[in-house]
Specification:
Blueprint (H helix, E strand, L loop, with lengths): L6 E3 L5 E7 L5 E6 L11 H4 L8 E3 L4 E3 L4 E3 L4 E2 L37 H35 E17 L2 E14 L3 E13 L5 E11 L10 H5 L5 E5 L3 E6 L3 E4 L2 E23 L2
Antiparallel strand pairs: 1-2, 2-3, 4-5, 5-6, 6-7, 8-9, 8-15, 9-10, 10-11, 11-12, 12-13, 13-14
């Protein structure tokens, strides 16, 4: 659909004018309803300025006005240069006087600057950019949701102790504590924790720790012994070594290989506590 004006009809929808053009917009004939060539300058077929591709036709100069510059159908060229260079993404787009990339059969130009095919290209690129932005926004939302789901906040307080020693050059440490705490995902809990480690350097300890924890909404004994916790099937045993792991006692043993990234600090000297803020990843 090239939007050529091919005729004019009266109020009864009877065709009174018929236009015929070549591919470049040169007017071949203007005929009346009887098929006669119209030459009368006062006839509506001559007065009407909208012709080929619905462009505005100046009958005195025999040029079409495309809203920004004039097009000469006899030359098949514009009479002045385009203000946009190479918009059609082909070599012909760098000829600033060329009309519709020398392809008037498939293209048109309603502005004198963008042939319709090029404008469709612009819209296509804009849609691609829109899709890219939408994907990026969705990706950010997904990451934000994942971060929200994996965020961990934990704080606890209790009673405990820590012992350090040195036997034949091998340094070690052991600790034990009973605590009450709060986890942002599961709520209040009570726990008993025991650990043993060997120091490999001034700041490096390799060892293991076992924590029996029960999420109880603060309703149970705040300072339970280990055997009290293990009697409850909802108790969770957490084992910490090089990586943090957990095993849930619910009839089936499930090992959680998720890793914690963040800040975790605790100190027990008879009385003390621990705080943990960060993210659980993997698993």
């Amino acid at each position: 659909m090239q939007e050529d004006i091919i005729g004019i009809a009266d109020e009864n929808y009877n065709k009174i004018v018929e236009y015929e053009y070549d591919s470049w917009g040169n007017i071949i004939t203007i005929k009346d309803n009887n098929g006669n060539i119209i030459t009368d300058e006062s006839h509506i077929g001559i007065i009407n300025p909208f012709r080929y591709r619905s462009y505005y036709y100046d009958k005195e100069t025999k040029l079409y006005y495309l809203n920004s510059r004039y097009y000469n159908p006899e030359w098949g060229r514009f009479i002045n240069a385009d203000s946009y260079l190479g918009v059609s993404e082909d070599i012909l787009g760098y000829n600033l006087y060329i009309y519709v990339s020398n392809n008037p059969i498939n293209n048109s130009d309603n502005t004198g600057q963008f042939l319709k095919k090029a404008w469709n290209w612009v819209k296509k690129k804009a849609n691609q950019v829109k899709k890219t932005i939408t994907k990026s926004v969705n990706a950010v939302k997904k990451v934000a949701k994942k971060a929200k789901e994996s965020f961990v906040f934990e704080g606890e307080a209790g009673l405990g102790f820590k012992i350090e020693g040195n036997l034949l050059g091998i340094k070690g440490e052991a600790g034990y504590n009973k605590s009450v705490g709060y986890n942002n995902k599961k709520g209040h809990y009570t726990s008993t924790n025991a650990g043993l480690g060997i120091k490999l350097g001034s700041d490096t300890v390799v060892g293991t720790g076992v924590e029996a924890r029960r999420y109880d909404n603060g309703d149970s004994n705040p300072m339970p012994l280990l055997d009290e916790l293990l009697k409850d099937p909802s108790t969770i045993i957490e084992r910490t070594d090089v990586f943090q792991k957990s095993i849930t006692q619910n009839g089936n043993v499930v090992v959680d290989n998720s890793h914690f990234i963040g800040i975790e600090f605790g100190l027990y000297i008879f009385g003390g506590g621990k705080i943990k803020i960060g993210f659980n990843i993997g698993g």
